[in-house]
Amino acid sequence: MKLEVLFVGSFQTTQEGRGGGQNTACELIVDSDLSNMIEWHLFDTTQNSNIVPSLTFRIIRGIARIKDYIKLMLSKKIKTALIFTSFEAPSIVEKGIMLLASGYYMNNVIVSIRSEITSQSIIKNLFIKYIFKKVDIVICQSNRARQDLCKIIGNNNVNTIIIPNWVDIKNYSNKRYDNLLSFSEERPLVIVYAGWLESSKGLNELVFAVSTLIKNGIHLQLHLFGDGAMYDIIQQRIAVDGISEYIYMHGWTSKSDLIDAYLNKDLFVLPSYTEGMPNSVLEAMATGIPILATNVGGIPELVENGINGLLFQKQSVDAIESTIKKIYFDPQCIERMGKQGRKLAESRHDRDSAMRTLAGLLLH
Question: CB-based burial of residue 2 (10 Å sphere; 0-12 exposed, 13-18 middle, 19+ buried)?
Fold first, then answer.
């Protein structure tokens, strides 16, 4: 008989037709061999749109979902829960109340934190400390996340385990490298970004840095995959700076097309202000391209500076410029870093290994 598990996470795409990193991680769990042993009761908490709704709407929706969750838990008499949550409000508040309810009625309550962990207000920190006492296991994505959590709730108040984020490595092909000695107008350095087009992703700084480099004679292209509040702003910047030949906006695309895009580009860039352990970086690593990313959240445990990519300071145009130039003037490092990234993805972040650890937690 299969174990019944109430799984709270993201299982739908948004109105824009795209799911985020949590959606990808949830889908990879449900599609794994774990489903041979577990009967999942999926409880979807996907944000309907990339446009953030009003606080009033989110509170009303959160109350409705909490009621539905408790009703499902009691009617099915499920004794195990796996709850994915961001550490940001209102997600942590909504999921926290679900955790409290689960702690009273279930035997095994597991929460997985899917974002960077930052200290909140005193009241919110006390709330987090209280609800996590009702949890059996907290899954963190990185050592940094576990350390930051323990600063808030204390080292002895919760059982934590690290399961780094995962990809299904067999779905990613290995990149073929050009073995270039230098870049030129005919063969520019080609950079790719994939994700939400939001200011918190560092897109203002990235576009400004790329525009400056192009004007200073650096031969490069930037390809942006995704959509969001900054789409029109970036288009306007491209038009004003006259760089439409160098920066391309593709919108959302299929996973297979995105993998093909990675295989045909030189670098992946993620200039975010805050991150957990982003799927986009893992997916790019799995295809074998180097990563340029900010040193925030769990990224330094994905990107070893100088080994499989380069790290830089967040919210800094100068840092982005200098990091890109390091690769531009040393193109042969692309193959070395890309191959190391693929090895790290295979050895540390393959889904099968993560699912074995998760199975041990759910089926104990």
Answer: exposed
- SS3 assignment, position 169: helix
Q: Kindly tell me the burial class for residue 56, based on how many C-beta atoms sit within 10 Å of its own C-beta (0-12, 13-18, 19 or more).
A: exposed
Strand locations in 114-273 (E): 137-140, 160-162, 189-194, 220-225, 247-251, 267-270
- Which residue spans within 228-301 are E strands per DSSP? 247-251, 267-270, 291-294
- In this structure, which amino acid lies at residue 50? N
Contact by Cβ (8 Å): 192, 268? yes
Look at residue 94 and give its three-state secondary structure.
helix
Q: At what angle do helices 317-328 and 203-215 cross, to 10 degrees?
A: 50
Buried b (16+ CB within 10 A) or exposed e, 223-240: bbbbbbebbeebeebbee
Do strands 247-251 and 220-225 pair parallel, antiparallel, or not at all (unpaired)? parallel
For residues 272 and 294, what is the distance between their CA atoms, to the nearest angstrom?
A: 6
State the angle between helix axes of 55-76 and 91-105 in degrees (0 to 180), rounded to the nearest 10: 20
| 100, two tokens | 């409290």
**Which domains are assigned to the chain?**
3-166+350-362 (3.40.50.2000), 170-348 (3.40.50.2000)
Max avg pLDDT among 58-72, 93-107, 168-182, 307-321: 307-321
Residue 264 DSSP one-character state: T
| 20 three-state secondary structure | coil
pLDDT bucket at 14, cuts 50 / 70 / 90? low
Chain position carrying tokens 């195990």: 80
- Taking every pair of Cα atoms in the chain, the longest distance, rounded to a whole number of angstroms, is 66
pTM of the full structure: 0.92
Rounded Cα distance between 282 and 317, Å, is 24
Secondary structure E strands in 32-188 = 38-44, 80-85, 108-113, 137-140, 160-162
**Alpha-carbon 58 to chain mean position:** 22
